[in-house]
Specification:
elongated, mainly beta, 4 strands, single chain, 4-stranded antiparallel beta sheet
Length: about 60
């Protein structure tokens, strides 16, 4: 999930990351990393065709 802010906001430094794992992902499944950016943080998630939220995270950017 941290690849999203690294690629889409390379000038912003990540101050913290908190995450939660919700459901397992199995070998061979295609993953989609999705995110919603904000002013000082971003909400991230991992999805598959079976589940919208396998894992969720919040990234807080440095001021």
């Amino acid at each position: 999930m941290l690849e999203l802010p690294r690629r889409n906001a390379p000038a912003r430094r990540v101050r913290s990351l908190s995450y939660r794992l919700h459901r397992p992902v199995f070998a061979g499944e295609h993953l989609a990393a999705c995110g919603t950016p904000g002013d000082d943080r971003a909400e991230l998630r991992i999805a598959t065709h079976r589940e919208e939220r396998h894992a969720t995270a919040e990234v807080v950017f440095s001021g």
